[in-house]
Amino acid sequence: MNQPANRVLIIGKPGTSKTTFLAQLFEVLQLGHGRLRLLATPANTVAIEQARRRLAEGKSTQSTPASQNQTLRLSLQLADQPLELEFPDYGGEQVDAIIQERQLGPEWVQMCRESDDWLLFIRLHDHKEPHDVLTKATAEVEPAPQLPDPEAAGDLTTFQKAVELIELLQLLLAVRELGIQQPLRQPRLKLVLTLWDELHTADRPEQVLAARLPLLLEFARSNWTPEALQVWGLSAQGFRLDTTENQDKYLDGTPSEYAYVVLPEGGEPVHDLSRLFG
């Protein structure tokens, strides 16, 4: 008897390494490395191949064009379990419109309702660490400025971006027709902190998220059971490709070998992207 496939939906705003991750994962599949096996070639691999070509040349992948609107699907096998990976590749304006207008197209609705796991990619570089006046001495707390403070405006923008992620999750839950009276067991939620190599930290991913986006983490903790919620680190590129030395590494080796994840419990990086789906 055939087992039903576990369906994974990868979501995230532009610039969160989704394209780089997909290109690196596809290369691992093509090479036959790791625990994942490709069951069928995707109908359209243009975006994947373009990203793979740039990485092979020692260049970072490019952002998805604003006008682009497509969904990439990979039919995989993880050990003996079928796995369907769905990756909506939307341009920046369209992602923002989804959040602001709180509307999803029919294809998004179907993917949302049928998925068993949601992987939300988050680029923490968009979110500064919030000020915590509770940990400061009285002398360190400055009086409120009389004129608009550019730094305060930046903090407000950061807060708004965090709220947007919560609104996105709320929208997906509403489409799924799931209430929040009791913590959810399904779909399972993985909050994936991307560009991990640039965070320069030895903390566990959950600790990092608690410091940078506490509101988002508390929302997730309140609405998912501990068993259904995880926070991961991800470096789809491994390091920045802004120096000749790093570019040469990519030219001399296999780009996907530098990609890694950091497990929820922390520890050393694991160079096996398939662990995200285990």
Give short descriptive properties of this protein.
single chain; 278 residues; alpha/beta; Rossmann fold; eight-stranded mixed sheet; 8 helices; globular; Double-GTPase 1 domain-containing protein; P-loop_NTPase; DO-GTPase1
Spatially, the strands of the biggest sheet line up as 2-3-4-1-5-6-7-8
Major β-sheet, in short? Answer: 8 strands, mixed
Low-pLDDT runs of 5+ residues are 127-148, 150-154
- CATH domain class: Alpha Beta
Give the end-to-end Cα distance, rounded to a whole number of Å. Answer: 22 Å
Radius of gyration: 20 Å
* Residue fraction in strands: 15-25%
The H-level CATH homologous superfamily, spelled out, is P-loop containing nucleotide triphosphate hydrolases
Query: How many domains make up the 3D coordinates?
Result: 1
CATH architecture: 3-Layer(aba) Sandwich
Taken from the alpha-carbon principal axes, the silhouette is: globular
- By CATH, the topology is Rossmann fold
Organism: Hymenobacter ruricola
Protein name: Double-GTPase 1 domain-containing protein
Domain Double-GTPase: 9-275
InterPro entries: DO-GTPase1, P-loop_NTPase
